[in-house]
Design a protein that fits this description.
Blueprint: H1 11-23, H2 28-40, E1 43-45, H3 53-64, E2 78-81, H4 86-92, E3 99-103, H5 114-127, E4 131-135, H6 138-142, H7 146-160, E5 164-168, H8 177-190, E6 194-196, H9 208-225, E7 230-232, H10 240-254, H11 269-284
Parallel strand pairs: 1-2, 2-3, 3-4, 4-5, 5-6, 6-7
């Protein structure tokens, strides 16, 4: 692995740029289009010990048609489940445009031997997953074992074959924005198709400061190589307003080419309810009951 270099992160500059993105006003005639776009970027996710076939099937139906009363709304980008639920989700999503993602590599800890993690990835793809969300070994990264982390990501990329690989940095455990930048560049160099903030199991999760650092790493890689890498913030994004702030940040940092589910995703199931709530209000002029939009 070549040495990973990046300019040291100026935390105050990052905070100022994020503050500007949050303060941007969005014209009313653009808001509905952006809310629809955000909905189409969601990885609708269930990663609980109590997951059942029925819950996963209901989630898949929700992903395909988020709100039956507004059938013109887009489907979500993907459904994300544990590997054991991939066959159930595969059947439920058949014939739809919704992609099937699965977490792997001993999610969320990443603490199992590499051969076991690689076998899990291969098996999950064989079962029908279109995308693999892997976790890096944060302990190894924080111990300075960057070559090991790089090699493990590259091995998972190979094991995933044609599946899209999203590499979860678990930024809440990395400590500094400099570490986030280093981990972002490392994951991209090792073959990540997307870099993702968090498992959703650790706090803080997807902060916009972290997001800007990751988006900047993607921009630097694109300018240097012409290769486009995606970004997925996950954890803590619950409101349409937050989603719009993220879209402003993406547009300002990477441009229109990233304003698509092929290059940007939200890992935020609870976000869908508020997006639908706001879209219904824009459609008929009043706020409907939130119970109409529950994920379950």
């Amino acid at each position: 692995m070549e040495s990973i270099h990046h300019r040291r992160i100026d935390n105050a500059t990052v905070a100022r740029r994020v503050g500007r993105a949050r303060s941007r006003s969005i014209k009313a005639d653009s808001k509905q289009a952006l809310l629809r776009l955000a909905l189409s970027m969601v990885d609708l996710t269930t990663l609980e010990g109590a997951d059942s076939p029925g819950r996963v099937q209901a989630l898949c139906r929700k992903a395909i048609r988020p709100f039956p009363e507004m059938p013109d709304l887009p489907s979500t980008a993907a459904v994300c489940v544990y590997p054991t639920m991939v066959p159930v989700a595969r059947r439920a999503l058949e014939g739809s445009s919704v992609r099937l993602a699965a977490v792997a590599t001993a999610f969320p800890s990443g603490q199992s031997p590499l051969p076991i993690r690689l076998e899990e990835v291969r098996r999950t793809v064989e079962l029908g997953a279109d995308e693999i969300d892997m976790v890096i070994a944060r302990g190894a990264f924080l111990a300075g074992e960057h070559d090991r982390v790089f090699d493990e990501i590259a091995s998972v990329k190979e094991a995933a074959g044609s599946a899209t690989l999203k590499v979860i940095l678990e930024t809440g455990e990395l400590g500094t924005l400099d570490n986030v930048a280093t981990a972002s560049h490392l994951a991209i160099a090792a073959g990540a198709d997307f870099i993702k903030t968090s498992t959703g199991k650790v706090s803080p999760a997807a902060t916009m400061d972290v997001g800007l650092v990751m988006l900047t790493a993607i921009r630097e890689h694109y300018l240097a190589t012409g290769e486009a890498v995606g970004m997925k913030p996950a954890g803590g994004i619950r409101t349409a307003k937050q989603a719009l702030h993220w879209l402003v940040l993406v547009a300002e940092t990477l441009g229109k080419g990233w304003m698509t589910p092929e290059r940007f995703r939200f890992g935020a199931s609870s976000l869908v309810g508020d997006l639908l709530h706001q879209l219904a209000r824009l459609s008929d002029g009043h706020y409907p009951s939130p119970q109409r939009f529950s994920v379950d």
